[in-house]
Specification:
Shape: globular
Order of helices and strands: HHEHEEEEEEHEEEEEE
Low-confidence stretches: 1-20, 22-50, 79-88, 270-275
Largest sheet: 13 strands, mixed
Number of helices: 4
Helix content: 10-25%
Mean pLDDT: 75
């Protein structure tokens, strides 16, 4: 039996815009949230957890968040396969990362994505509820709507040290690890052991001045009796009290989606302001 050429298989596979993007991300989301960027809580001191042991999460004060935080992004494919996919499906769009206190006292974290070229009612969402008293993720869900089809996965979580993609970003912002830190990640209804690895810093152009950010990688860990997470989450978080996630990269199935925060507009000095 003759096998189908790889390029034909890829072309048949590619023309499914947000569904393919969902498989790429395996960790994102969509919705309509207020625009703008709110300041985050001050950074805590860097902490180190014992390598090989899942770190216990710590509680936090919702009062630090006020009405919450909303970060706006533009996304695009960056890997070779992603650029190839961009020939057949939407290759850019908007993303929103938000952290909002809920009436029942929990913190909802959401990472959302939409496409410029997709229908307005198509989306992909990853979200979770966090208990501020313990810092634990108590519930996680993913959801998408594409071409009239909808799918949702939802889990109650009672394990310690579990995060999803969005709550992982919040956890790293609040307690940035100084050395590799073990956690567990909820992804598409399953839980996987992962490790958060701090990396070097770099500068990002930001309005009229640069911002310095440190990189963090969240990668799967080989562990007997556990599933292996094949995805990867790369973050660049600013080294300032806001701990702003300037860049989010999600790698999945040889595709990389890069979300870059929308910087404030550069304001030109008026004639009266010039020295």
């Amino acid at each position: 039996m003759r096998s189908r050429p790889l390029w034909k298989a890829r072309i048949q596979w590619l023309p499914r815009p947000l569904l393919i993007l969902a498989l790429v991300i395996g960790v994102t989301g969509v919705g309509v949230l207020p625009s703008g960027i709110a300041s985050g809580a001050p950074l805590a001191d860097q902490v180190t957890g014992p390598r090989g042991e899942v770190a216990e999460l710590e509680g936090f004060d919702l009062a630090d968040l006020g009405e919450g935080e909303v970060f706006r992004y533009r996304w695009r494919f960056t890997s070779f396969l992603g650029r190839l996919a961009g020939l057949f499906l939407p290759g850019r769009g908007d993303g929103v990362l938000s952290f909002k206190p809920q009436p029942e006292g929990a913190l909802e974290s959401r990472l959302e994505i939409t496409s410029d070229e997709a229908d307005s009612d198509e989306y992909w969402l990853y979200a979770a509820l966090m208990d501020p008293g313990t810092g634990r993720t108590t519930k996680a869900w993913s959801d998408y709507r594409y071409r009239g089809k909808e799918k949702r996965r939802e889990s109650e979580i009672d394990e310690s040290g579990v995060v999803d993609i969005a709550s992982a970003i919040y956890r790293i912002r609040r307690r940035p690890p100084a050395s590799p830190l073990r956690l567990k990640i909820w992804s598409d209804g399953k839980i996987y052991p992962v490790e958060v690895i701090p990396g070097p810093t770099r500068r990002f152009p930001w309005g009229q001045e640069d911002r310095v950010a440190r990189s963090y990688r969240v990668v799967g860990v080989e562990e007997a009796g556990s599933r292996f997470w094949k995805g990867r989450l790369n973050l660049w978080i600013s080294l300032d009290p806001q701990a702003t996630p300037l860049v989010i990269e999600v790698e999945r199935s040889a595709l990389t989606v890069r979300l870059e925060m929308v910087p404030p507009p550069v304001e030109e000095n008026s004639a009266g302001d010039r020295g």
